Amino acid sequence: xxxxxxxxxxxxxxxxxxxxxxxxxxxxxxxxxxxxxxxxxxxxxxxxxxxxxxxxxxxxxxxxxxxxxxxxxxxxxxxxxxxxxxxxxxxxxxxxxxxxxxxxxxxxxxxxxxxxxxxxxxxxxxxxxxxxxxxxxxxxxxxxxxxx
Length: 148
What we know:
The protein is an alpha+beta fold. The chain has helices at 13-30, 88-104, 118-123, and strands spanning 2-7, 46-52, 55-63, 73-79, 109-114, 127-128, 133-135, 138-145.
């Protein structure tokens, strides 16, 4: 897998299209969730992309502090259907944490995680910090990662 991370205004039209296509395929179509993905945060974020043979298969949005939460965050975590069940999700999150630390220093990370992925995020060192809440009809929880 080839990893690239770019600010929004550095993305090529091809990269932006691939990001939006992957996010829509999983978050809207697969999860059957009608929501506004374009939330006016992308422009302030960094975009971590995992490519295999010129196809975007893994992606996260690295969010600076003060945009989604007071803390820095990792959002829009997505792995294509073809790239699942082989450790790509874990690799993506490890790379996302490493990239966030390189960008902002070893700071606390806060995420809004889908509840069914709680154990996955706990395996990476995140801890639940809030009650279950509904976002776009899907149960979520807030979680934090504190660097050591």
